[in-house]
Amino acid sequence: MSPSSREKHGYEFGGPIGASLISFGLPIGCYAFAFLCNDVSGAPPPSLLHPSTLSLDKLIAETGWPGFSGLCSVRAILGTLAYYAFSLVLNVVLPAREVEGVELQNDQGRHKYNFNAFSSAVFTLTIAAAGTALQGPKFPLWPFIHENYIGILTANILISYALATYVYVASFSVKANDPNKRQLAAGGVTGNIIYDWFIGRELNPRISIPLCGEVDIKAWMELRPGMLGWILLNLAFIMGQYGTYGYITDSILIVTFTQAFYVLDALWNEPAILTTMDITTDGFGFMLAFGDLVWVPFIYSIQGRYLSIHPVKLGTARSVFIMAVYFAGYYIFRASNSEKNRFRTNPNDPSVSHLKYIETKRGTRLLISGWWGTARHINYFGDWLMSWAYCLPTWMAGYAIRSSILTGEKVVSQGPNNEMAGAAIPITYFYMLYFAILLVHRENRDSANCARKYGKSWDEYCRIVKWKIVPGIY
């Protein structure tokens, strides 16, 4: 790609420096969350509330730091690889629906995809349910996750680095007018190694695996190991709470149900990912690999991890309020996405044929009525509302773990004077804040891409649809 083309597309995420910081900073952040929410001293570790007496030795003791040798174990790596292999087998043996992707650039046709993520998830969860019905919290899957949580986190981090490196190297075999319809991503061929490795050079990298056939790496990673792993981690946390306390709270059930519903809904609507920016625009590099395999399952499940150690009983009123927020967000999210997907795949569908639109010089249609006439990314608003339901069940987050003077047993509370209440809000409510920033940044990226593609048509669209995400506010 020529320098002028690179300048036209531009760097994102702060360019090479930003890509470097993200690539090597985010894994540290994931470890930080894993140790700040722990079953050794509390969340956050009590010494963090008293900076004047804080020492490294005290922090190491309070977080349960296992030493560098404890960060990685052969057992955790083999277990994680077995999980990936099991998912690949299900991808092959279970019935799948064949779907065509969007039209590729330069009239190279369309990729074909075989989707069965939902049935794979149901099959896996059925096995877990049957095992739990027979053995309860001692079903081997749940102790394995608890005992190897840090090791599983490390294994997925290593896989994301290896995967990003593989697809980066493989991308140099892409040819002009490639007979296998391989293409490079417009934003991933800047010539800067670290940036291209991070953002992804190849648009839709594929690999042929013996006995498994051809796998579209990006589409498979988008909804397979990480998303289902998110549910499995939450279920392990429920089993952990039950095994420790002998009961399951409404708060952890709400977190697990809302997040599982979100994931299973995404898997059920798997073909809808083919019209998202992740698939149509972004290359597959470390950004998506780490996001899919590490950030989503381990950061998004932090509320379940918190509640497994410190049970919170919400009661009927608070539970109803949280669920109302969730389903309001879900309705906006799913209705708007379904409208867009139906219009893109069949604009003559009676449910969308009445919608008004602008037709660009490229022949693309931009909706200016219905959900998409209220805001350019109204689906993001629904998505963000749902995130509230993931965080609110932790309520005034913060707990301490002390040893009972009389029995020596561990006592979990918010402290004798309730001093820990609210201290862990930056941890358990982090997702809401991060997700808001992510969606605003994503909207800006998408808007910039659309401005490059549609020119004056995009300016006209923005004039008609004034709001970006939240109607009347932003």
TrEMBL record:
InterPro entries: ERG24_DHCR-like, Sterol_reductase_CS. It holds the Pfam family ERG4_ERG24. Keywords: Lipid biosynthesis, Lipid metabolism, Membrane, Oxidoreductase, Steroid biosynthesis, Steroid metabolism, Sterol biosynthesis, Sterol metabolism, Transmembrane, Transmembrane helix. This is Delta(14)-sterol reductase. It is a multi-pass membrane protein. The chain crosses the membrane at residues 12-36, 74-94, 115-134, 149-174, 227-245, 251-268, 280-302, 314-333, 384-401, 421-440. Belongs to the ERG4/ERG24 family. It is found in: Membrane. Its main location: membrane. The keyword Phosphoprotein does not apply.
